[in-house]
Design goal:
Helix content is 30%, strand content 41%. It is an alpha+beta fold and 113 residues long. The strands form two sheets. It has a four-stranded antiparallel sheet with strand order 2-1-8-7, with no helix packed on it. Strands 3-4-5-6 form a four-stranded antiparallel sheet.
């Protein structure tokens, strides 16, 4: 008799845990469509930009110039006047392909959150 009561309680706990997990998955999936690109310049947050809105972002800091483009849910470094231009060759970032774009000479970092 005692074993049946414990088994029923365990099933109730398992069922409630599954319901809470499904609720958490639902909340996280709904929030996933709101990803933003965070731009950091010289260690300070420069701006946050939605990946849902196509735009061109020009960042000028003294003689340093970078142009970011957001189009169809992706962001990339379109142009930079740094000497090596490695940032222009970095992969496009998106919700499906998060990562970081770094322009080390200009101390510029772009990440997707």
């Amino acid at each position: 008799m005692i074993k049946k009561i414990l088994i029923k309680k365990e099933w109730i706990i398992i069922f409630l845990t599954l319901i809470m997990a499904l609720g958490a998955i639902l909340v996280l999936s709904m929030a996933g469509g709101k990803q933003v690109a965070v731009v950091t310049l010289n260690g300070q947050e420069y701006g946050r930009y939605s990946l849902k809105e196509d735009r061109v972002i020009t960042i000028e800091n003294g003689d340093n110039s970078n142009i970011l483009e957001i189009k169809e849910g992706s962001i990339w470094m379109k142009k930079a006047n740094c000497p090596d231009k490695l940032c222009e060759k970095m992969a496009h970032l998106s919700e499906d392909k998060p990562g970081v774009i770094v322009c080390l000479p200009h101390e510029l970092i772009v990440s997707v959150e």
